[in-house]
Amino acid sequence: MSFLSRLVNVFRGERLNREIAEELESHLHEAVEAGRDPQEARRALGNAFQQRQHQETGHDARVLVWLDLLRADILFAWRHLLKHKVVTSAAILSLALAMGACGAAFRLVNALFIRPLPITNPSQLFVARFDGVTFQGEPAHWDSTSYVHMINMRAAVKGQAEVMGVEYAQRYDLTYGSDQAMERATLQHISGWLFPSFGVKPALGRLFTEDDDRYKSSKPYAVISYQYWKNRFGRDPNVLGRSFRINNDLFQIIGVCEEKFTGTEPGMIPDVYLPVTAQGNLDDVGNGWLRILVQLKPGANIDAVRDRMYAVYRTVEQERAKHWTNLPKEFLAGYPREKIVMQSAGSGVSELQSEYRTALIALSALIVLVLLIACANVGNLMSAQAVSRAKEFALRISLGAGRWRLARMVAVESAMLAIASAVLGTAFAAWAAPFVIREIGTRDQPVQLIMTADWRTIGFGLVLTLFVTLIFGLPSALSVSSLKPLSALKGSENVHTGRLRMHLSIAAQTALCFVVLFLAGLFTSTLERLTGKSLGYAPDRLLLLTGTTQHPQPPSVWNQIVERLQSEPDVESASLSSWPLLSGRTENDLVSTNGNPLDKVPARFVWVGPGWLNTMKVTLQGGRDFRIQDASPKVAIVSRQFAKQYFNGANPVGKFFELAAVVNQKRDRIEIIGLTDDVTYKDAHDSMLPVVFMPMRRVDEKNQIQPAGEGIFSVRMKSANPLAQASALQRVIQSEEPSIRISNITTQEDLVRDQLIRERMLTALGGFFAIVALLLAMIGLYGVLNYSVQQREREIGIRIALGATAVNITRIVTAQIFAIAAAGTLIGLGLGEASGKYVQTLLYGVRAGAPSMLLLPAIALLLATALAALPVVLRAIRIDPVTMLRAD
């Protein structure tokens, strides 16, 4: 019989059995027709048992035996799972939640860290990272350098590797028509030879070549991504030749990238690519704006390439340092101090990777712990069921069933639970992963990750399903395989062994749950401390409008707009600044006071207009605010931290400081006219830094007023929702000065929230998994305690009959489970303190080993144990001894 026929017969079931029975019956009729006595013919076929053997032999000859047995086991397991709907549903839901979370975490990790770039030889792609120290001796790491360094490095390793410069992808304002139709797009400057080096093909038109990116002869060409072409232009082939403007520069679209290429920064897909040389200020060696990608050629050694690159880098930097005549010699000793480290960039390189690497590791650890708790819970349920079915299994063995056949039945049931959980978990992961991505993005810059399924995600799902099946199904299968039929039929088989296994499982669950609660508490405390941290200003009701103009305007024009905004009825106050606090932008410089050498700690600068301190609600502790006639770099207002750092905490009003002016320039001598409270400058996680506020009105060495091309209008509204008035204020600005365009609108509260995205994500997900872990632990405690009471019902009934009180019964029932939970908690204390060291970089103002952080999870587990025990205790003290003894 063919393989296909035997395969089909597996699923024919009863029909096949009827055909075999009919075939045997036909043989009997043939014998009778041949003249044999009917009784003799039936005896020749054997008795009923032998006829049944004939039928089974015929059945086995017509089917794939192993598949038929598997089908039978599946049907039996399906009936058993349906018979216990509550237990089955609880097991599937708990496992699905944990497995779905694991799947979602892996999808994020795969998209961010594992998925190789769709380029030629991604394993040969590296990024040059610089590891060094600051002037203050603190470790520093960065991966950007100047155009000059990139060109020199490329020439030094020609023939061994290709060196490419890639700008950090960022949002730009551009327009395809009038200035009023300005829109924002993610733009990235890249070396012209990047596309051919990566083997990227055009979907339309052509891509850059090296000729498009030559120094001082750059062509005004642009290439757009496939996603941008689809979303912005609806795949219009006439997009080729269209032009757009960025500031005063006009660019023409010459091509569209193929769909699979989504850039080199996981988390951000550029909309527009421009040649590196389209960016200005290429000759400034100190302008570190390019990430250096190195694609190794066959046979080349990465260490040799790195050494050649560092040699030319060091030479250029040492030559540059010769002109830093105003810096103290100790600052320049051993300069440059940094080294070049080559890191693999086959999966891309981005700031999102470095920012969320530790956070994703921490979340993955939480998820694995929850998965183990869920597996232990389901394992306990399976073990309890296996013990309760001991007599059934013993009877099957007595009737001839093999032990491994019974073990296989249990294993199939476990596999069905795992598969059902995996299917449901996959649906949960499909929702959860994009949800997390949306949460870690900002309104202006959403995170974009390629989440399509590949062999890695599919393989992970299969391995996870197998792991879950083994972790909770294997103990039950082994216990069934070692069953002793005689003891089981007497009712004494494996009771103590099964109880011990469940108790060990509960201790492990409690320990793991403690760790989950402990980490979730650390993340929650970190968020509370950051949100409660004083910023030094009031972010509520602050609307921020970014104004830009092609032709820089004098300060008087910008001040007129501020006055016009202040006259609006819904506006409380308005002012101007160079950029918002907590926007990520920064400028620093070394300063000296009282003729002393430059201080090693740099000051941070921001340029603001008159009334800005009042608009931001920054408290002026001494001196005065800026006036219209004040100008940079003549006067400044400083923070208390500045006074503490450079004036030993003394009142600096009326005193002077000087800027570093490192390259043979006369130092600016600046008078301090005001002192403010400390303000949070760039990052909400930072301690208070020395901050200098300079007037927005700037003058050059000849005392000529400098026009400005950009400014941030900070408007404090009277209403609680400042964005509601944004459009009206935008019209006011454009009616006052049509040449100034509003390119971006946000609020100061949004900037503060964006600073805490990681902490909010960790707190929300950590809290969610903590609740899940606690519920699973309670279910596990309840299940084991309930099973224990079931096993001891006769004993408890006798004790009650002999006069045991409710307190006695409660102590007898709960003493062991509380001891197990306490042991698990003690183990969890050690695990929690050890795990806290690995997440310390994610914390703020919280010490992982603090007693309060360790005490709270212990109390939560104690309460959970009490709640889980309560219904079982009530059931135990209500046992009727008469009924129990009669039943015995």
TrEMBL record:
<keyword id="KW-1003">Cell membrane</keyword>
<comment type="similarity">
    <text>Belongs to the ABC-4 integral membrane protein family.</text>
</comment>
<protein>
    <submittedName>
        <fullName>FtsX-like permease family protein</fullName>
    </submittedName>
</protein>
<feature type="transmembrane region" description="Helical">
    <location>
        <begin position="359"/>
        <end position="379"/>
    </location>
</feature>
<dbReference type="Pfam" id="PF12704">
    <property type="entry name" value="MacB_PCD"/>
</dbReference>
<dbReference type="InterPro" id="IPR050250">
    <property type="entry name" value="Macrolide_Exporter_MacB"/>
</dbReference>
<keyword id="KW-0812">Transmembrane</keyword>
<feature type="transmembrane region" description="Helical">
    <location>
        <begin position="500"/>
        <end position="523"/>
    </location>
</feature>
<keyword id="KW-1133">Transmembrane helix</keyword>
<feature type="transmembrane region" description="Helical">
    <location>
        <begin position="458"/>
        <end position="480"/>
    </location>
</feature>
<keyword id="KW-0472">Membrane</keyword>
<feature type="transmembrane region" description="Helical">
    <location>
        <begin position="853"/>
        <end position="874"/>
    </location>
</feature>
<feature type="domain" description="MacB-like periplasmic core">
    <location>
        <begin position="512"/>
        <end position="727"/>
    </location>
</feature>
<feature type="domain" description="ABC3 transporter permease C-terminal">
    <location>
        <begin position="365"/>
        <end position="484"/>
    </location>
</feature>
<feature type="transmembrane region" description="Helical">
    <location>
        <begin position="762"/>
        <end position="785"/>
    </location>
</feature>
<feature type="domain" description="MacB-like periplasmic core">
    <location>
        <begin position="89"/>
        <end position="309"/>
    </location>
</feature>
<feature type="transmembrane region" description="Helical">
    <location>
        <begin position="415"/>
        <end position="437"/>
    </location>
</feature>
<dbReference type="GO" id="GO:0005886">
    <property type="term" value="C:plasma membrane"/>
</dbReference>
<feature type="transmembrane region" description="Helical">
    <location>
        <begin position="86"/>
        <end position="109"/>
    </location>
</feature>
<feature type="domain" description="ABC3 transporter permease C-terminal">
    <location>
        <begin position="768"/>
        <end position="878"/>
    </location>
</feature>
<dbReference type="GO" id="GO:0022857">
    <property type="term" value="F:transmembrane transporter activity"/>
</dbReference>
<dbReference type="InterPro" id="IPR025857">
    <property type="entry name" value="MacB_PCD"/>
</dbReference>
<dbReference type="Pfam" id="PF02687">
    <property type="entry name" value="FtsX"/>
</dbReference>
<dbReference type="InterPro" id="IPR003838">
    <property type="entry name" value="ABC3_permease_C"/>
</dbReference>
<feature type="transmembrane region" description="Helical">
    <location>
        <begin position="812"/>
        <end position="832"/>
    </location>
</feature>
<dbReference type="InterPro" id="IPR017800">
    <property type="entry name" value="ADOP"/>
</dbReference>
